């Protein structure tokens, strides 16, 4: 086809008076397309994406766990504990209780120093007045009896008055309760088979909470309205309760302390593995969780120290395994509970599309339709040239 014929047909498709404006319209459409699609969409995607630092998710997901989670210690797992000594005097107006809580704290320190390898212990004390034990004992003969079935009801009224719940660390409660002079002696009885026997220590224990020691004043002290108990009995009872909570038989035996360290190391390792594995699963399922560089570094350090702890534990080097297990547990808990993980959790991808699509779609439809029209005209001209 001659060039003159092509120009003639082209002039019919694009009238002369519209050629210049059509040219500008084409440029305008292309510029809109470049700004909105070529530049706008990548910028929008980059600015609305969630930052996630590189993580060893495969290593975290491949951690092997025990088939059954077992609590080696009765107390909650932690690297720090508070030992709260509470002295309860229900009738201070009738009985002056002479007990120095500071001396009890000092007497407990040698024992706590012996087991300091498993955790850091902070000893605090408080006094409670006009607080009853919470149960009504039965009067049998010349004594008042608290049966085994009533022991769980002792903790609830005491717990309401303790400030142990204000501490961020797990609290081990050691309660010294001196009963009313009108209800002494107050003794605890346990069932052993078919027999009901008096508790030799007159104390009760809740492995995950703490213990209560009921110390009866003698009649002479009640008449004189002053009771000064022996400090050694109180301290020995509290130490026995702490050992029971820790499953420790003899804190003077190095082999028993080694067993305690081994239990603690094993539980720390297992807890760290479960935390990291749960975190890997969570991050894989929810893409809108932010992973900062700081959190990623904590996770890597936890995984690294966990590997060292596993190696030393399998080699039966318990002291080294315990130290690395502490570090791994600390970093794993910090990374799992980091507040930055929830920074954009409330704005997932589906909500992001729901917000931005109504903004982009009305603008994109005219641009795409105009671009399609330009493309059709361009194809027609090209087809004429080929003929």
Automatic annotation (TrEMBL):
It comes from Henosepilachna vigintioctopunctata. Pfam families: PIG-S. Belongs to the PIGS family. One of its GO terms (biological process) is attachment of GPI anchor to protein. It comes from the Eukaryota. InterPro entries: PtdIno-glycan_biosynth_class_S (IPR019540). The chain crosses the membrane at residues 29-47, 353-375. GO terms for cellular component: GPI-anchor transamidase complex. Keywords: Endoplasmic reticulum, Glycoprotein, GPI-anchor biosynthesis, Membrane, Transmembrane, Transmembrane helix. This is GPI transamidase component PIG-S. It is a multi-pass membrane protein. It is found in: Endoplasmic reticulum membrane. Pathway: Glycolipid biosynthesis; glycosylphosphatidylinositol-anchor biosynthesis.
């Amino acid at each position: 086809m001659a060039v003159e014929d092509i120009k003639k047909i082209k002039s019919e498709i694009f009238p002369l008076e519209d050629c210049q404006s059509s040219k500008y319209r084409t440029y305008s459409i292309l510029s809109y397309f470049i700004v909105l699609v070529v530049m706008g969409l990548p910028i929008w995607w980059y600015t609305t994406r969630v930052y996630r630092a590189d993580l060893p998710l495969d290593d975290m997901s491949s951690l092997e766990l025990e088939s059954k989670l077992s609590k080696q210690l009765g107390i909650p797992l932690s690297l720090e504990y508070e030992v709260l000594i509470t002295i309860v005097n229900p009738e201070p107006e009738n009985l002056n209780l002479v007990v120095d809580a500071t001396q009890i704290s000092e007497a407990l320190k040698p024992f706590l120093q012996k087991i300091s390898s498993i955790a850091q212990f902070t000893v605090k004390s408080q006094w409670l007045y006009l607080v009853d034990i919470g149960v009504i004992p039965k009067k049998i003969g010349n004594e008042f009896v608290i049966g085994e079935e009533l022991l769980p009801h002792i903790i609830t009224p005491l717990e309401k008055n303790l400030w142990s719940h204000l501490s961020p660390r797990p609290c081990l409660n050691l309660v010294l309760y001196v009963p009313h002079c009108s209800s002494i002696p107050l003794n605890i009885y346990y069932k052993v088979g078919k027999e009901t026997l008096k508790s030799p220590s007159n104390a009760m224990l809740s492995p995950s909470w703490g213990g209560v020691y009921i110390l009866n004043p003698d009649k002479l002290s009640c008449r004189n309205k002053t009771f000064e108990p022996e400090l050694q009995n109180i301290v020995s009872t509290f130490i026995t309760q702490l050992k029971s909570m820790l499953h420790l038989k003899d804190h003077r035996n190095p082999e028993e302390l080694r067993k305690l360290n081994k239990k603690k190391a094993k539980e720390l390792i297992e807890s760290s593995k479960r935390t990291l594995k749960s975190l890997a699963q969570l991050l894989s399922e929810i893409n809108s969780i932010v992973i900062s560089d700081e959190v990623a570094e904590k996770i890597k350090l936890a995984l690294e120290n966990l590997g060292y702890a596993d190696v030393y534990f399998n080699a039966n080097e318990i002291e080294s395994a315990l130290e690395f297990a502490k570090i791994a547990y600390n970093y794993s808990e910090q990374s799992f509970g980091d507040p930055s993980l929830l920074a954009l959790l409330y704005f997932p991808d589906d909500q992001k599309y729901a917000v931005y699509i109504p903004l982009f779609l009305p603008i994109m439809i005219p641009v795409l339709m105009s671009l399609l029209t330009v493309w059709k005209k361009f194809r027609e001209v090209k087809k004429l040239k080929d003929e």
